[in-house]
Write a structure and sequence with these properties.
Serine Threonine Protein Phosphatase 5, Tetratricopeptide repeat; 8 helices
Length: 199
Amino acid sequence: MASATMVLSIAPSGLPMSAQASPRPDTYCCMRLLISFALSCALMALSAGARADLYSDVNRLIQSGQLEKAQQQVDQRLKTAPTDPQMRLLLSRIQDAQGQTQAAMDTLQGLTQSFPELAEPHNNLAALLARENRHADALISLQAAIKARPDYAIALENMGDVYAALASQSYGKALQITPNQRRIQAKQLTIDQMLKAAP
């Protein structure tokens, strides 16, 4: 996050020291306000930078499999900022990596309720639902993700995969009713191969 730079005006010092007029009391007040404002802006920029570093650190820990350390940092942050959406999203990734799929889904569900305008929690919830073959529920979550962010390519791709999985299920049911239909077999085979090819 780029920090805003504040430029303060400095009075010219063209007068000899003994001839300089003494500042008026309201000038002192304005200078103190400007200095206070500048310090506040600097502290806010540092705080935002520190949070960005914390998110990056937690993400690196998750990617490197250091889940306990990541969990400690997440827990510490959530004690002071329990509604932090980015940290809660990272928490769901930790929970999923630890095999706590239901806890991860609960965390993401809470996020979608607290922040329905964020696409990522909807998408990540859909991914977990699809992994459990709950494709209809996944589709609902993906529709919410795309409503929140229509240009979210990952959610659009995931929606295509979910539709393909639903199509495969439908073809499978059709084959149970009419097992020798080559046309249906060919369609199911094509979709299944496509789904297996996806990383």
